[in-house]
Amino acid sequence: MEVEETAEGLTGLDVERRDMPRCVVDEEAVLLLVGHGGWVQCRIVELSVTGCRMSARERLSVGSEHRVEAAFKVRGVSFRFIGVTEWTDGGNQVGIRFVDMPARRRDALAEVLCEVEAENAVKREKLAAEERGAEERGAEERGEEDRVAEEWAAEEWAAEVRAAEERAAERSAREQPVWQAELKAVEKPRQVNEIHAVAEQNGPEPQQAALEPAVPPAAEAAWTGRRERRQQSRHEVDTSAVLLLINVGSRLQGRIVDLSLSGCRIRTEEKFPVGIYTQVETEFRLEGQPFRLGGVIQAVHDRDRHSVGIRFLDVSARKRAQVEQLIEEIEEMRARKAPAKPGEPGQGARAGQGPRSRRP
């Protein structure tokens, strides 16, 4: 029966029924159960001018509406009030409503509760400030970790680019004699054909001319020197290209505006989405020949990020020879199409080679 009454008391309890707000306290207290005799050691955990909540050290065997006396001390001020139990939880928790409270004691309790509530507000504000500070420090630490991770990723990528460049330089050094030999094998027939074309245009030469070498050493040295100077020069072209961003996995359409053995410059249709040191592959066709060359973004030229410079990496000797031969053919075609000024040498045969006179 006692438990049923306690449950009814707990169910009927409503915070809205409290006359005054309760302050959180934690003080030693004693509770006298009138009619049972003896004091029960407790701690007062909530307090208002109309009542309190206590936590006993032992199980309380009382129900609701039982007369009690509560004695406690708050902020050094002692209080002793008569009251009745409002509810119990069937264990050691009990809610007490004060009755027959003198006005003077009520005012004293109200003044003490104001001080307690002010102190609790300061504690709550301090705790909130500490929590905000902890959150801000955590955000700063996370931001620092992200910054360190980004710097580490950038350094790792730069190291990969440097390693790729070193591998390309080593491979180029190993394969240079091979592709130079291949290039000479391609150039020599073309030089002979050009000499034959000049001979057909100017007529038969004396028999002594046949004893001369097909390509004079000075001409061959000049031709080789010119080729060496043009290895790193850029030549204007205009052909469609596809730029593949390897790490991102996307493709950009554009046009190649200049080309050299070491790289090219591309004007993209869309805004270039990443920065320098991005690994790419460039696909294009020139003079009917398809090319696909790997490289890395060397520069982003304009503010609208539509023009990028690319440096080729790990180019094989065969592809390098093809690109060089193609560049020379483009320049020769452009030189033939350009109108020659009167009095300039080179109107007859090749530029830099004067016209030959026929012998009678």
Q: In which order are the strands of the major sheet placed?
A: 1-2-3-6-5-4
Q: What quaternary form is this? A: single chain
Alpha-carbon distance between the termini?
146 Å
Query: Fraction of residues in helices?
Result: 40-55%
Specify the number of helices: 5
Query: The CATH topology of one domain is what?
Result: Thrombin, subunit H
Largest sheet: 6 strands, antiparallel, barrel
Percentage of residues in DSSP E strands: 25-35%
Give the SSE map.
Layout: H1 2-12, E1 23-33, E2 39-47, E3 51-56, E4 67-74, E5 77-88, E6 93-98, H2 103-202, H3 207-210, H4 217-229, E7 235-245, E8 250-259, E9 263-268, E10 279-286, E11 289-300, E12 307-312, H5 317-337
Antiparallel strand pairs: 1-2, 1-4, 2-3, 3-6, 4-5, 5-6, 7-8, 7-10, 8-9, 9-12, 10-11, 11-12
Helix pairs in contact: 2-5
Describe what this molecule looks like in 3D.
- The chain contains five helices and twelve strands.
- It has helices spanning 2-12, 103-202, 207-210, 217-229, 317-337, and strands spanning 23-33, 39-47, 51-56, 67-74, 77-88, 93-98, 235-245, 250-259, 263-268, 279-286, 289-300, 307-312.
- The protein has a six-stranded antiparallel barrel with strand order 1-2-3-6-5-4. A six-stranded antiparallel barrel has the order 7-8-9-12-11-10.
- Strand 2 and strand 3 (51-56) form a beta hairpin.
Name the descriptors.
360 residues; alpha+beta; Thrombin, subunit H; six-stranded antiparallel barrel; 12 strands; disordered C terminus
Give me a quick take on this structure.
With 360 residues, the chain is an alpha+beta fold. The protein has helices at 2-12, 103-202, 207-210, 217-229, 317-337, and strands spanning 23-33, 39-47, 51-56, 67-74, 77-88, 93-98, 235-245, 250-259, 263-268, 279-286, 289-300, 307-312. Among the domains are: 2-101, Thrombin, subunit H (Beta Barrel); 184-203 and 216-335, predicted glycosyltransferase like domains (Thrombin, subunit H, Beta Barrel).
